[in-house]
Write a structure and sequence with these properties.
FAD/NAD(P)-binding domain; D-Amino Acid Oxidase, Chain A, domain 2; alpha/beta; 10 helices; 404 residues; 27% strand; single chain; five-stranded antiparallel sheet
């Protein structure tokens, strides 16, 4: 890591280690100057949300360093998802997910257009395959309208057949503002913008602990080049690791850190040409939105994700899931041929509540929650995190302000 400035390390809240203490005594108690970088703002986690936050803070004139534990940006949730730009339908009125999804969707479409990022506003159908599912669609439509999504359209069986001949259902909602985006191009654009504004990205630099001091927050990192940085502002945007990182920072009240749970999802891809021109979603299920059809920008169809609660971050594709997926898919795509799907990839969603719990909102904790000046922790940033990334960045910036 580039050394910006050396600063004193001795502090009552962050005691000296044994070597420092010996040097401290040998120098007669004078304060020791160690190789600690002093940085205005550090964003931890270079996924799409961390990059968006780093870009926003740097554009406001802040000195920003973005620390990423992996050897490349966006290697977890940001590159292992459906790449969907969500409309803002599913989330309770007044929730952060509802507000930031709707705001983020608008901002993301504008950003993609301005930056030339590949995307498509192709729309999606939420389908009721049974009469009893129609009530769920009715609730979703009312909820969407509460969230400011006023473009949903009712479709009957014939309307759906005209748009998507292979889809069978009794009724559906059409969401014209749902779309897809090239998530890798989005990551690259956000990184480019952040760097142009003066931010520095440092990969292979995991933060392993921290300490709240009177003069800032001291972060200690590992990797090939261990480091210490003293920051006035720290944003914890580490996704799957957010709770564990927050607990590792001495001075952050442990009772403000939510528990962490992991929901693994598998994606299968359809072999051959896709018969769909839009995204196809069943009604939501506990823990997710059901095994749905998404398309990539080349028109290839993929199905997923399912929901498997796991204890560790493990992206291996479990065997024996084809039958479960085929049964779920045939509810709305009954003509799908046997053995026409093959394993694609997996992703893991960070959750703040266990299996069986009601859907949880994004959790964004600033100083008013934990009492630590200059610190923002983001927990449970799952779907629609990609859609909401630019709005989340504005939200974090508002919490931090122009100055810590």
């Amino acid at each position: 890591m580039r050394l910006l400035q050396s600063v004193p390390y001795a502090s009552a809240s962050c005691p000296l280690d044994a070597r420092d203490s010996a040097l401290y005594a040998a120098q007669g108690g004078d304060e020791i100057v160690r190789n600690i970088s002093e940085i205005d703002a550090v964003v931890i986690g270079a996924g799409v949300v961390g990059l968006a936050i780093a870009r926003r803070l740097a554009s406001s004139g802040r000195q920003v360093v973005l620390l990423e534990a992996e050897n490349r940006m966006g290697s977890h949730s940001s590159s292992r998802n459906s790449e969907v730009i969500h409309a803002g339908i599913y989330y309770p009125r007044g929730s952060l997910k509802a507000r930031l999804c709707v705001e983020g969707k608008r901002a993301l479409y504008r950003y993609c257009h301005a930056q030339g990022i590949a995307h498509s506003r192709l729309g999606k159908l939420i389908v009721a395959t049974r009469d009893e599912d129609i009530a769920v669609l009715e609730r979703l439509k009312l909820q969407a309208e509460d969230n400011g999504v006023d473009d949903l359209q009712w479709l009957d069986r014939q309307d759906v057949r005209a748009l998507e001949p292979e889809v069978v259902c009794v009724r559906a909602l059409l969401s014209p503002s749902t779309g897809i985006v090239d998530s890798h191009a989005l990551l690259a654009a956000l990184c480019r913008d952040a760097r142009s504004a003066g931010a520095e990205l440092v990969v292979s630099s995991p933060v392993v602990s921290g300490c709240v001091r009177a003069d800032g927050i001291l972060l200690s990192g590992g990797g090939a080049e261990p480091f210490r940085v003293l920051c006035q502002t720290v944003v914890n945007a580490t996704g799957l690791q957010a709770s564990s990182l927050a607990r590792s920072i001495e001075g952050v009240p442990k009772d403000t850190v939510p528990p962490s749970f992991l929901a693994k999802g598998h994606y299968f891809v359809l072999t051959g040409r896709s018969p769909f021109s839009r995204l196809i979603y069943p009604v939501p299920e506990p823990g997710g939105l059901g095994i749905h059809v998404t398309l990539d920008l080349a028109g290839r169809a993929r199905f997923g994700p399912d929901v498997h609660w796991v204890d560790t971050i493990d992206y291996r594709f479990e065997e024996g899931l084809e039958g479960v997926f085929e049964d779920a898919i045939r509810r709305y795509f009954p003509t799908m041929k046997a053995q026409s799907i093959e394993p694609g990839y997996t992703g893991i969603r960070p959750k703040v509540a266990p299996s069986g719990s009601a859907p949880q909102d994004f959790v964004v904790h600033g100083p008013e929650t934990h009492g630590v000046r200059g610190l923002v922790n983001l927990y449970g940033i799952e779907s629609p995190g990609l859609t909401a990334a630019l709005a989340l960045a504005e939200h974090v910036h508002a919490i931090i302000g122009e100055h810590p």
